[in-house]
Structures are given as structure tokens and as C-alpha cells.
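Quick illustration, no need to memorize.
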Amino acid sequence: MASGNLRPLWPELVAAVLGVALVLMAPVRIGWIGTVVIILSAVSAITTLILSKQSAKVQLTGMIIGIIAIAVGLLIGLKNDGQTAIFSPALVWVFGAGLVMSTLCTLIARKLKVNSKQTA
């Protein structure tokens, strides 16, 4: 997949469906994980729509920013001693994970497309 093409959103769709299934079928104690997966897939899909047409350098920069956001969110969560809040700054890790998922899937899709053109 060359720069300028929009990557299909299949990974995000599969993650969202799995998140919905987890919310519906999991016990209440772990059902929140499905909600996080749904939010992560939504963030990843939105990020893909914005960044999918960009170069590999932009994708890698997005991945680095996402990794930093994950680390910052987890550190904030650890400093808050597990106190829950709906709009906690610790939730920045979810947005970082969505960014990492988007950029990683885009880079993998591009690599697979290049490999399939070389073998054909």
C-alpha cells in the first residue's frame, strides 16, 4: 500500500466486534475490558482515517507518540493508587494504544501489499 491510499479498517472492526462480544458475554467484573477494546478500536479507526494516507515516517512518529502516551497513562494510573475516575488523565493510555494499533496495522498492511506485488 503506497502512501496516499486509505487502509481498510478490518482490524478495528474485528476488535470492536470482539469488544462487544466481551461486554455481552463476560461477567460484570471483567466486562469493562470489552468497553476499553471498543474505545480502542474507535480511536484506532479515527486515527487510521487521518494518518493512513501519510508516509511511513509519519506512521512511525505516530507510533512513538502512542507508546509515550501509553507509558504516561500507566504512570499516572500508578501514581493515583488505583482510584477510579470517569475522566481520569490515566486514560490517555487508551488513546495511545489506539494510535499504536492504527500505525502498526497500516505499516503491516503496506509491507504485505509490497510483498504480494513482488511475488506476483
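The two ends are 15 Å apart (CA to CA).
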